[in-house]
Amino acid sequence: MNGKILIVGAGAIGGFYGALLARAGAEVSVVCRSDYDYVSRHGFQIDSHELGCWQFRPAQVLRQACEYQDSADYLILCSKVVAGIDRVNLIRAGLTAETAIAFIQNGVDIESELLAAFPDRVLISGLAYICCNRVAPGHIKHLAYGKLTLGALTPDDAGLSQRLRDLCAAGGGDCEISRDIVASRWQKCVWNAPFNPLSVLSGGLATQAILQSQEGFVRDIMHEICRIAAASGHPLPYDTVELNIERTRHMPPYKTSMLLDFEQGRPMETEAILGNAVRAAQRLNLECPRLQSLYALMRLRELQISQS
Amino acid sequence: MNGKILIVGAGAIGGFYGALLARAGAEVSVVCRSDYDYVSRHGFQIDSHELGCWQFRPAQVLRQACEYQDSADYLILCSKVVAGIDRVNLIRAGLTAETAIAFIQNGVDIESELLAAFPDRVLISGLAYICCNRVAPGHIKHLAYGKLTLGALTPDDAGLSQRLRDLCAAGGGDCEISRDIVASRWQKCVWNAPFNPLSVLSGGLATQAILQSQEGFVRDIMHEICRIAAASGHPLPYDTVELNIERTRHMPPYKTSMLLDFEQGRPMETEAILGNAVRAAQRLNLECPRLQSLYALMRLRELQISQS
Known about the structure:
2 copies of one chain form a homodimer.
Chain A: E1 4-8, H1 12-23, E2 27-31, H2 36-42, E3 44-48, E4 52-56, E5 61-62, E6 74-77, H3 87-92, E7 100-104, H4 112-117, E8 123-136, E9 139-152, H5 160-170, E10 175-177, H6 181-201, H7 207-231, H8 240-249, H9 257-263, H10 270-283, H11 289-307
Parallel strand pairs in A: 1-2, 1-6, 2-5, 3-9, 6-7, 7-8, 9-10
Antiparallel strand pairs in A: 3-4, 8-9
Keywords (chains A, B): NADP, Oxidoreductase, Pantothenate biosynthesis
Pathway (chains A, B): Cofactor biosynthesis; (R)-pantothenate biosynthesis; (R)-pantoate from 3-methyl-2-oxobutanoate: step 2/2
GO molecular function (chains A, B): 2-dehydropantoate 2-reductase activity
């Protein structure tokens, strides 16, 4: 028995990791909204240079978590963290007493609402370092990377993080446990904080063009995130900025997730990535003028979208 | 004799002030590129709530300054300050030995190229505090304000700034002499530096919406300009930021000139307004992270436009 898993929010990220876990032998069901009709008939098609191409037929395809007819070992929340999505209500009805909650989501300081709602449950915080896009209903293209970083938010997780890691690895995924998942979240923000908003505010540039044109500015933004992380008790390795710059230089030109959301008229993760970072800095009495600038500009961009 | 004037770059600003000077009795000719055909046949139509509506028929309508068949007392340059426009070559052929040069243009640190090219001539630096738009060929709508600030860049201007001011005032214009026109230029930049780029980067918000949503950010940007002005020897009055905020609050919602340029696919005054301010700060070893952010973002936006 490799466990039962319910993925809530099976877009590109949820579909991809669900497919990996199913390949490892887990019984994976999915809640998906926009692609429900297609996925319930045809399942997912995953195309990956690194991992091959395969079909993923979920055990159950559901519109809402309350329709789940089983008891999951893990509920994995993969929705975006945006205004208008109530993460607690999205998952509550899919849980039984034994279900551990994992979430694979972007942003910093996004744990508290789940910790408050589910204080007695194992909570696993997850970060996907991956380039993968939904190119059509149920069709996910995995472009590069794929490392999943997991870390329990509760001191004792009864080995559940490790078990989920092993499952993912058995499916061919690159998965690791972080001893300080909050630091890992800041570390991911080092990349997201510049490239996500710059791709939108520039009107659609890919990562390569942004880096080639404004490397100094990108580095300055990254350093602001590093300073906030350190001041909040999660210092990042000294070469974090350098590694992120190098990684981006050798990535294929990539449209960020925020840019894809923007182009498709979906809400963007402005608050989870920028707003929460700026608010953390304010609580710590730390200056972060470049992040504040990006945040103010994204708010203006969103205001303009809401008016048009 | 009220003098002969050649306006080079008769768009909204050049057409409007040319029309004021003609109304005062000056013999005003214009060089205009894009509206040449229309203006040479019909002249300009000026519509202004404050100053009334009137026709302005230039003495000569020209495609280039070298076609001017007369000797001007003043050549007034009103083009935008953007890459690809060589201001010196634009005006050289329109000058005789007696012609004073005035320029009514946005931006800071834009004097040096004219001072270097015309060291022995009276040079008058001018700033238009005005909301006026070209709504159709030869048709200029004056929405609000209109103050023209003039100041000689040469210690002795033989009364030529004052004479130009008097002419403008005789035409109904609000015109004043600045004893420190370089400071006046920084003062205008206090408004331009936030509102011009924010209107473009937000995707098209008018000034009111920007101010209502992000007043704190707008103020921070304005303070950065004030600090650069002070460090460069041109301290602005202590209430500059407050006055600019109040003025904007009571303006009608306004599309900035940079937004109009952006929407019409014309080059934007990014370097004259932001680039020169950031470079001045760098020479003075001054931090201006918000201006740097706006400048980097405008450069990315322009890169994206050039690629599409």
